[in-house]
Write a structure and sequence with these properties.
- The strands form two sheets. This protein has a five-stranded parallel beta sheet, with helices on both faces.
- The chain folds into two domains: 139 residues, Rossmann fold, CATH 3.40.50.2300; 75 residues, no CATH class.
- The protein has ten helices and seven strands.
- The protein has 238 residues and is of the alpha/beta class.
- One of its GO terms (biological process) is phosphorelay signal transduction system.
Length: 238
């Protein structure tokens, strides 16, 4: 038994900290999205570890087995569905595999790969987050008594948003191919949805559409690049 499993067994969830004793591994390339989950874990009593790609997630899983794993479907080194498929048949199996994406169409792919649940981004409502996990927990791992409903939304650190913009800018400044454009478009669309940045979200989705239908991406790419640079220059308050 490793240290995390020992911690899990010693902690008993309470009404105010219903996820106490759980360890979540979040496989998410967006620092902003991950910070939202970190804040919800903090309020719920859960421990959190983060991996920003498939390779990093597999390294984590060689060392310990989390109680819950939340996997973004679009990662820089491949599809989250591949990791879900691996974990769904692994022995011993991670108790709960949750997929997430800014694209609702990814749900069917995630469930077919073996995910126990799917949540569309943004994931920022504390009660929804807690209930999603508790609904899959055995009765003896759920808090006893009346649990206070906390419908508050969490607000991730704006610095994490700028980190995501810097990540996108690095990709856009290089020699981007079709695969890179697809990735950065979906990445920015997801981050923008969480941040409530409709302008960037629409532009990123247009870039993905342009790339997908084979039309010229020049105008869409230029617009997205300009918006990313604007946000790095702090011209927009998040």
């Amino acid at each position: 038994m490793d240290d995390l499993e020992q911690f899990d067994r010693m902690c008993i969830p309470t009404a105010s900290r219903p996820l106490l004793g759980l360890t979540l591994l979040v496989v998410e390339d967006s620092r902003y999205a991950c910070d939202a989950i970190r804040l919800m874990c903090l309020r719920s009593g859960a421990r959190i570890r983060r991996a920003d790609c498939l390779q990093s997630a597999r390294r984590h899983l060689q060392v310990y087995r989390p109680s819950v794993i939340i996997i973004d479907m679009g990662l820089p080194d491949g599809s989250g569905a591949d990791l879900i498929a691996e974990l769904s048949v692994a022995v011993p199996r991670v108790a709960m595999i949750i997929a997430t994406s800014g694209d609702g169409f990814a749900e069917s792919v995630a469930i077919a790969a073996g995910a126990d649940d799917f949540v569309e981004k943004p994931m920022a409502n504390l009660t929804v987050f807690q209930n999603m996990i508790l609904n899959h927990m055995p009765q003896d791992r759920r808090p006893k008594g009346v649990r206070q409903v906390q419908a508050e939304l969490v607000h991730p650190d704006p610095i994490a948003f700028r980190d995501d913009m810097a990540h996108a800018a690095d990709i856009l400044s290089g020699d981007v191919d079709g695969e890179s454009l697809e990735y950065v478009g979906r990445f920015l669309s997801g981050v923008a949805r969480i941040a409530g940045d409709a302008t960037l979200s629409v532009a990123a989705q247009e870039l993905v559409r342009s790339r997908g239908d084979g039309s010229s991406v020049g105008a869409s790419l230029a617009r997205v690049t300009g918006l990313v640079h604007d946000r790095l220059a702090d011209r927009m308050a998040i």
